[in-house]
Amino acid sequence: MSVPDKVQGVIDARRERVDELDARIVELLQLRVKVSEEIQRKRMNSGGTRSDLFRESVVLRRYQDAFPEAGTALGTEVLRLCRSKTPHPKLQHIPKDR
């Protein structure tokens, strides 16, 4: 089904806006990954754990409050994305084949 040119123009403009917003979201997520990795590195280097489960529950609640239907899944994926892949300093000497 074809839409009138005027309507298609509005749709195209709104899609461009969505693309701009998506680019900003990706940029912010990339920055969040870097900041989270820094936090994790500092915590692990001072003898702490990679994750702070209380803090993760606070973050997850924020997503649940903002997006009641999808917040848990969205927040969980953001947290998963931001968990560092760097081995814990105490485990770096252990060969990977073990």
UniProtKB/TrEMBL annotation:
It holds the Pfam family CM_2. It is an enzyme of class 5 (isomerase). Its EC number is 5.4.99.5. InterPro entries: Chorismate_II_sf, CM_dom_sf, CM_II_prokaryot. Keywords: Isomerase. Residues 5-98 form the Chorismate mutase domain. One of its GO terms (molecular function) is chorismate mutase activity. SMART domains: CM_2. NCBIfam families: PRK07857.1. This is Chorismate mutase. It comes from Streptomyces chengmaiensis.
